[in-house]
Design goal:
By secondary structure, this protein is an alpha/beta fold. It is built from 10 helices and 12 strands. The strands form 2 sheets. It has a 7-stranded parallel beta sheet with strand order 3-2-1-4-5-6-12, with helices on both faces. The two termini are about 30 Å apart.
Length: about 270
């Protein structure tokens, strides 16, 4: 089988450059396109030189349509609005759309679902094996421990992250809610300030910390009477997200259209 042709969108960003480096060094895939927003400073530059892996012969452009038409998949860690637009184009081109974008609204998610009727959409709040394994453990623990155990999710990211709680924190909260057979929307407490009253039983709390250059730390705390269980994951290099994204793209190649998660890719469900 020939190498899978992939497009990286948001190519000049930190994650975009990480994705380009990963594609350039991973067997079975090849970079066929690199997209940036209109007016971006790096338009016209070679994507490989931009990412520090040497010339690849792929210039950065602001026109995704021909790039998608010539590709088999797109790697997308951009913004909700951009990802929704890319989802429509990926659906038209019938290519695999790997989405690591966080901060998406319910309306955005509905648009990804619509795109998945025509293309393979792999979307996750986190692409790493460790986090998705952690989510599986959280789901199991929540089911076993019961509502008398309080659940708190604490996450920390670099100062430049713009959404909170993180997509990974929400992924973990969703796993906890699934374990208890409840809706996360009905149980989530996303902030506390002032006289909040006692903690309601069954709540799933979130705390978001921002600072420095932290790639991503997440802890799920199960607090019971006289004892506490903490499940923790620390991401030390964003390259692990790129590795997961490539694994998702290759997994989705030739698969029937639909909405999938990293748990599907990794066989954790």
């Amino acid at each position: 089988m020939t190498d899978m042709k992939l497009v990286v969108v948001g190519a000049a960003g930190r994650m975009g450059r990480t994705l380009i480096r990963a594609v350039a060094t991973t067997p079975g895939v090849v970079l066929s396109g690199a997209i940036e927003r209109e007016g971006a400073a790096d338009l016209g530059r070679d994507a490989g030189l931009l990412a520090g892996v040497g010339e690849l012969g792929v210039p950065v452009t602001d026109d995704p349509l021909p790039a998608f038409a010539a590709a088999e998949g797109v790697l997308d860690f951009t913004t909700p609005a951009a990802s929704v637009a890319f989802a429509e184009l990926a659906a038209q081109a019938r290519i695999v759309h790997v989405v690591g974008t966080t901060g998406c609204s319910a309306e955005d998610e509905a648009k990804f679902d619509a795109a998945a009727r025509h293309a393979v959409v792999v979307k996750s709040g986190n692409m790493s094996l460790g986090v998705n394994l952690l989510a599986s453990l959280v789901r199991r623990a929540a089911k076993s421990l019961g509502p008398e155990w309080d659940i708190e999710i604490v996450e920390m990211h670099h100062r430049m992250k713009v959404d909170a709680p993180s997509g990974t924190a929400l992924l973990l909260g969703g796993a906890a809610a699934e374990g208890r057979a409840i809706r996360l929307e009905d149980a989530a407490v996303r902030g506390r300030d002032g006289q909040t009253g006692v903690r309601p039983q069954g709540a799933i709390g979130f705390a978001a910390l921002r600072g420095g250059t932290v790639v991503g730390d997440h802890a799920v705390i199960f607090a019971g009477a006289g004892e506490r269980i903490e499940l923790t994951h620390r991401a030390e290099d964003r390259a692990l997200f790129a590795t997961g994204a490539l694994r998702a793209a290759l997994w989705g190649r030739g698969r029937k259209p639909g909405r999938y998660s990293m748990a599907d890719v990794l066989g954790l469900d």
